[in-house]
């Protein structure tokens, strides 16, 4: 299964198990979504449970909050994460705080799915990584899978979670892992070990990171597409790095991070989002607060630049193998 | 084009709306057109929206200004029910008066009265079923009061005290009462509008019988959420009533800044293909009739209705506002559609079901009821007196379960306070 099929399978299984789950969003119904993540769902579960919406992200999320109030568990899709901003108020001021402001009387158990990240020549309106904005909001959980197996297990856990979850899907690796060498075609997931996805139900708990590779020299914290870029660079560099795939940013698996950095004494953080106030800043602060005495080198961040995503120059923006390799070298030599 | 070449072209000019009257101005509403009660036809609940466009530009009225009732919209309500409605409206006014005073006494931070708008909530609540879901704005305290919600509970919320079910997290008047089918109030305007539509869609998709209703002010119809709500409501024919309370003023901005100079707010419905009604919001019977019609329409799967309640905000926006700084003080007394309580009272007297003595006695009773509730609520504390929720409750309900970082921060707060000797 590729990641899209895994997401489709998770939605299908959840909808079968719980009639309260509804899927809504632009083009998600008859057409099955522009990335086909919701294909066949309307035919199978009916058009009052899987339906197309008007093009108003604020409306999609606002309506989903109302559906939660009735007792449904909506899974709205925002077609591209870049378009989530019109829905920001409904997410930040409404869904995120509903439990708090009503002291538990009302809750918003919704999972907002949205493809994010660049590397598909999407320009500055189809490439952004806005995860840090959501991690800054009290009351939202933020989940980002890096492979089909995790995508399915995490999505099922997110849908079953009683808090609102932002589920960002790295669209660059929908069809296969990608090591960051942009000239190389994407390897289909079918040839990748982590693409063995069970047909049935399973879940991966939110808040648990995965150790992708054990190592002793440096801890690399990453998520989404960057997990594959990192794995490629580590394999090429010969450095004995420990790669941690965070999988969920909120709640964060602080124990895994702390244990790894204390073991390796070095830390590199990789994400595609812009650097300033990016989630890497939070990770860097946490590592400094908790592992300062174990650190043998300054923490390095390898991130997108603080610019919008440039269409023709996106491979200069994308934090790929060259920049990560240099950062690793600097950390190891320091 | 170079600058010289522009010289013989007509310069553009920008229109910035101005209200008719500013502080110190004499108020004259002589040209205010009050349609006759017989003017508005009452369409069948299944009528198509395009058949009733005139209702979006007219004014549905039942009570004339002499207290007589008539017209196609006159609801058949018993005198007992009308008296009950009147009492609830008086109770809202008494509640507002007392809570306004306690704010001035420093017992809470903030309050918002709905003086002059009591009919828009009370009469609407009477026309809805108790379990129809309400998504209110901040001036619909009448919904809770009409549903006989505990005044003490409402006051505890206003005081943010130990008895506040919302654990002192919301500003005063931002109630939440799920048992009363009353949604948690947001300070961000119009967010409740698509939420109500979502609730209505959920109910309809389940084959349930509950409908939803939401309220916003005329000012916040400018918000994108309002238009998203109308689009969704129209597209899916959601069983929802979209209420716009046109009370003429959004803090200091008059309704012209929301587009009132160009059209009515009920006419927003026309563009969406929704049934639109413009109603005399100071006429409790008209509000009742319009809401009942819209509710029946929704219950029979004929879709949403947008109701503009044409009313007047007799008091300031809130206790933080001074309306004398931006509008003529005469507006309130000169308002051509009068006061909703006075008008219903006059009607009841006209039909022989009420008199001045009973009215005065009722006013004393509701004042006593509010006073007693106030004493009860104050036993649990007022804002700032220490009788609040335990500090650690601050960290509860952010998520269903307390995550590590909030647990750490909660512990840190306790330790820091202890170290500081507080």
Automatic annotation (TrEMBL), chain B:
Domain 2-oxoisovalerate dehydrogenase E1 alpha subunit N-terminal residue range list: 11-49
Cofactor(s) needed: thiamine diphosphate
InterPro entries registered for this protein in UniProt: Alpha-ketoacid_DH_E1_comp, DH_E1, Oxoisoval_DH_suAlpha_N_dom, THDP-binding
Reaction(s) this enzyme catalyzes, per UniProt: N(6)-[(R)-lipoyl]-L-lysyl-[protein] + 3-methyl-2-oxobutanoate + H(+) = N(6)-[(R)-S(8)-2-methylpropanoyldihydrolipoyl]-L-lysyl-[protein] + CO2
Ranges where the Dehydrogenase E1 component domain occurs: 87-381
Enzyme class: oxidoreductase
EC number per UniProt: 1.2.4.4
SUPFAM superfamilies assigned to the protein according to its UniProt record, in alphabetical order: Thiamin diphosphate-binding fold (THDP-binding)
Keywords (A to Z) from UniProt: Oxidoreductase, Thiamine pyrophosphate
Similarity annotation: Belongs to the BCKDHA family.
Function, in words: The branched-chain alpha-keto dehydrogenase complex catalyzes the overall conversion of alpha-keto acids to acyl-CoA and CO(2). It contains multiple copies of three enzymatic components: branched-chain alpha-keto acid decarboxylase (E1), lipoamide acyltransferase (E2) and lipoamide dehydrogenase (E3).
The protein's name in its UniProt record: 2-oxoisovalerate dehydrogenase subunit alpha
Organism: Sphingomonas naphthae
């Amino acid at each position: 299964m590729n990641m899209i099929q895994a997401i489709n399978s998770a939605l299908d299984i959840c909808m079968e198990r719980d009639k309260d789950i509804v899927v809504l969003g632009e083009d998600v119904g008859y057409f099955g979504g522009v990335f086909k993540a919701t294909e066949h769902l309307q035919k199978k579960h009916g058009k009052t449970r899987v339906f197309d919406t008007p093009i108003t992200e604020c409306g999609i999320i606002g309506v989903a909050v109302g559906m939660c109030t009735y007792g449904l568990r909506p899974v709205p899709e925002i077609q591209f994460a870049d378009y989530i901003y019109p829905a920001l108020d409904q997410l930040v001021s409404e869904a995120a705080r509903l439990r708090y402001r009503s002291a538990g009387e009302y809750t918003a158990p919704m999972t907002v799915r949205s493809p994010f990240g660049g590397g598909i020549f999407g320009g500055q309106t189809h490439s952004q990584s806005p995860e840090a904005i959501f991690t800054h909001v009290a009351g939202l959980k933020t989940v980002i899978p890096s492979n089909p197996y995790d995508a399915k297990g995490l999505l099922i856990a997110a849908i079953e979670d009683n808090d609102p979850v932002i589920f960002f899907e790295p669209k660059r690796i929908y069809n296969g892992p990608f090591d960051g060498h942009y000239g190389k075609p994407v390897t289909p997931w079918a040839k990748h070990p982590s693409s063995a996805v069970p047909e049935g139900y399973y879940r991966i708990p939110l808040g648990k990171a995965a150790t992708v590779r054990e190592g002793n020299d440096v801890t690399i914290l990453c998520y989404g597409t960057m997990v594959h870029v990192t794995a490629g660079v580590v394999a090429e560099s010969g450095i004995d790095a420990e790669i941690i795939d965070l999988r969920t940013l909120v709640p964060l698996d602080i124990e895994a991070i702390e244990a790894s950095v204390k073991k390796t004494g070095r830390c590199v953080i990789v994400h595609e989002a812009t650097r300033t106030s990016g989630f890497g800043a939070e990770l860097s602060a946490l590592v400094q607060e908790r592992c300062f005495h174990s650190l043998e080198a300054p923490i390095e961040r390898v991130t997108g630049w603080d610019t919008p995503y440039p269409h023709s120059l996106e491979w200069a923006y994308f934090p790929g193998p060259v920049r990560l390799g240099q950062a690793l070298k600097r950390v190891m030599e320091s | 084009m170079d600058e010289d070449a522009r010289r013989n072209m007509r310069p553009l000019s920008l229109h910035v709306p101005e209200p008719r009257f500013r502080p110190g101005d004499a108020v004259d509403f002589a040209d205010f057109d009050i349609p006759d009660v017989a003017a508005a036809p009452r369409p069948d609940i299944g009528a198509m929206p395009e058949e009733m466009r005139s209702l979006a530009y007219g004014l549905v009225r039942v009570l004339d200004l002499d207290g007589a009732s008539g017209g196609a919209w006159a609801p058949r309500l018993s005198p007992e029910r009308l008296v009950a409605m009147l009492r609830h409206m008086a109770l809202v006014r008494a509640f507002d008066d007392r809570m306004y005073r306690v704010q001035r006494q420093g017992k809470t931070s903030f309050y918002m009265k709905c003086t002059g708008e009591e009919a828009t909530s009370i009469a609407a609540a009477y026309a809805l079923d108790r379990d129809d879901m309400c998504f209110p704005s901040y001036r619909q305290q009448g919904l809770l009061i009409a549903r006989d919600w505990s005044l003490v509970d409402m006051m505890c919320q206003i005081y943010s005290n130990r008895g506040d079910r919302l654990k002192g997290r919301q500003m005063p008047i931002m109630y939440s009462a799920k048992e009363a089918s009353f949604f948690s109030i947001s300070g961000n305007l119009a967010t409740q509008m698509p939420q109500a539509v979502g609730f209505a869609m959920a109910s309809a998709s389940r084959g349930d019988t509950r409908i939803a209703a939401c309220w916003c002010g005329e000012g916040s119809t400018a918000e994108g959420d309002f238009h998203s709500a109308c689009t969704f409501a129209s597209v899916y024919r959601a069983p929802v009533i979209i209420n716009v309370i046109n009370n003429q003023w959004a803090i200091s901005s008059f309704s012209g800044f929301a587009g009132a100079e160009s059209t009515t707010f009920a006419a927003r419905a026309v563009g969406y293909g929704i049934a639109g009604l413009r109603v005399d919001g100071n006429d409790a019977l008209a509000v009742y009739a319009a809401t009942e019609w819209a509710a029946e329409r929704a219950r029979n799967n004929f879709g949403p209705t947008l109701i503009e309640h044409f009313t007047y905000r007799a008091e300031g926006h809130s206790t933080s506002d001074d309306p004398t700084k931006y509008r003529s003080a005469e507006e309130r007394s000169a308002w051509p559609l009068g006061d909703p309580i006075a008008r219903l009272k006059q009607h009841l007297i006209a039909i022989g079901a009420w008199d001045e003595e009973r009215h005065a006695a009722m006013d004393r009773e509701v004042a006593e009821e509010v006073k007693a509730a106030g004493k009860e609520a104050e036993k649990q504390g007022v804002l700032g007196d220490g009788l609040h929720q335990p500090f650690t409750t601050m960290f509860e309900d952010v998520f269903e379960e307390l995550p590590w970082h909030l647990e750490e921060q909660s512990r840190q707060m306790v330790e820091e306070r202890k170290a500081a000797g507080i």
